[in-house]
Amino acid sequence: MRFIDPHIHMTSRTTDDYARMREAGIVAIIEPAFWLGQPRTEVGSFKDYYSSLVGWERFRASQFGIKHYCTIGLNSKEANNEALAEQVMELLPLFIYKEGVVGIGEIGYDDQTAAEDKYYRLQLDLAKETNMPVQIHTPHRDKKAGTIRSMEVCLEHGVAPHMVIVDHNNEETVKDTLDRGFWAAFTIYPHSKMGNERMVEIVKQYGSERIMINSAADWGISDPLSVPKTAALMLEKGISMEDIHKVCYQNALAAFGQSGQMNEADWMDNNTVDQRDKFSDNSILRGGQTPVVGEINTSSSATDSNIIR
Ligand SMILES: [Zn+2]
Predict the structure, then answer these.
(1) Distance from the CA of 35 to the center of ligand 1, in angstroms?
(2) Is residue 214 part of a domain?
(3) What is the pLDDT of residue 65?
């Protein structure tokens, strides 16, 4: 079974993660631009970060047979530094047309401040002008009101619901999101919040239309195998393969594919890697290692038993 993880921050992850993800069937991922754990102080830091999302990280994923896409945007936390935010806004148009960019994201509200509102709206206008999908980060505090507000503001700016992926939903927000015609994404964190047991119940109750799951794995405690592990649990709990395929693959492809930058052929037609490849003269290999060249082997040395194959 093939999977897409439509929200994962690989910049913070290791090559072991890439190898395990591919082995578990993850063929494509989307890495939203986000906050790095401490605030950036210069616009150049944003520029280099965006460059790595469309450059080095994309290459690194390819070396493990995973197609890497990203969304580019100014995250809500850093929107609160207005002097810097102004400069970042000028940078965005230089990156959103690059190969592999499938949307504006992750944007939205954190503390729901006036500055967050201002830059969220400006980025929605940019998405509208460029006809790009939007990946919304909904606030963890005051979640329900913040999620509804995020969607209302999209509508106010003329951004169509089918172009918007609303992330970090839970039982309290899913109905509002689906009723308004938006895509409802769920982040599966280990030991907390939206665990995979709860996700199974949501799919049982709401079905698989416009629902997708992701790991949002980053530098915090998170699991890059959340998508395949939740799929395995869904199967065990009697959810159909068709529904699992939609929630763990097809809906992400349909939503972000609207960018014109993400096609199934990108990974179906090319299932080989060549670890002799280099990016700006840099390789992922270290002294004396043997490069993997050729077909991806997804069946060997499995370490996680609860993965569907
Ligand atoms: Zn994120």
Answers:
(1) 8
(2) yes
(3) 95
Domain with 194 in it: 3-276
**What separation in Å is there between the alpha carbon of 216 and the centre of ligand 1?**
5
Residue 210 CA to ligand 1 centre (angstroms): 19
Cα 294 to ligand 1 centroid, rounded to whole Å: 32
Does residue 301 fall inside a structural domain?
A: no
**Tokens linked to 279:** 């990016």
In a domain, 294, yes or no: no
Query: Are residues 253 and 264 in contact, defined by beta-carbon separation less than 8 angstroms?
Result: yes
pLDDT of 52 higher than 90: yes
Would you say residue 191 has pLDDT above 80?
Answer: no
How many structural domains comprise the chain?
1
Segment holding 127, helix H or strand E: helix 114-130
Write out the two tokens for 202.
């949501």
pLDDT band at residue 192 under the 50/70/90 scheme: low
184 CA → ligand 1 middle, Å: 15
* Residue showing tokens 């090559």: 15
